[in-house]
Amino acid sequence: MTQRHEELMDAAVQLFQQNGFHATSVADITEACGISKGAFYKHFNSKENMILKLLQQYYDDMFSEADRPQDVYNQSPLLVLKRKIMVELEKSLEYRSFFLALLTEFPPYETGPIPEFLSRIQATHQKWHKRALLNAFGSKTEKYLDDLTLILEGILHSYLMQMIWKGTALPLDKLSDLITECLKAIVENDELLTPILSVYNSADSETFILESISNELHALRSEMNTDNAQSEKDLQTIDFLAEELTQEKPREFLVDALLAQLHQRSYLKTRLIGILTEWEIWKGE
Q: Which Gene3D superfamilies match (predicted)?
């Protein structure tokens, strides 16, 4: 990303937060950066395209920072989970005005590229939460993982609303500790838990999970840029992976290796979150 590209993105975020998306024009953005409209269109096809790139960058940054290995957390899955929660809280507060404007002007019941992107990224975000919980608490949570994920998201949402709408300043480190300990208490005392969501979700079916992974791989493949040799190799890997998943008994070691190879590509990390989570659930890990 060039310096000019970053300047345009930064200026747009400020203007979107101040004036809203519809009220901010391309001319407003270029004027704030001191460039021409022609220069703007060298970086973005349209204002809508810029909004989509801003959203993708936000989630890529959040997932990347939250998933970044930290030596101090290596020995404790719970500390890793706590850090993920804290990063999510920090990023949500940092971009709160941006998302409030976004949700006000692009409600989920509308159609179009932006609401559709928000719907897709919300599903990816939820799968990221599931994977974080699986990594923290292990396979014993699988039978009620959907419910535990919704509990985590409900807690996060409620505290964020307390901080955003009421202006309550809360210590995020202690809040992350509290949320993690609440989840731990649920998992450690799960003998009497009766799963609700998983009972009504067909995603418990192994066949359904493999079909879902295959569909996500197909969608990923269709969105990839094939202009360079590396992308072409990645496409071949995706095709090989999709073919393996059609087998009666997919070879776990091979699928693991192919997913690990794809996950090394920074531009694929976010899109692979849901696929990796579903694969771990299918394996029973």
A: Tetracycline Repressor, domain 2
Q: 149, 158, 91: which is closest to 277 by C-alpha?
A: 149
CATH number of 1-44: 1.10.10.60
pLDDT of 66: 87
* pLDDT tens, residue by residue, 144-187: 999 999 999 999 999 999 998 888 899 999 999 999 999 999 99
DSSP codes of every residue in 2-69: -HHHHHHHHHHHHHHHHH-TTT--HHHHHHHHT--HHHHTTT-SSHHHHHHHHHHHHHHHHHHHHHS-
The domain locations on the chain are: 1-44, 56-198, 201-285
Placement of tokens 């649920």 in the chain: 186
Q: Which CATH class is domain 56-198?
A: mainly alpha
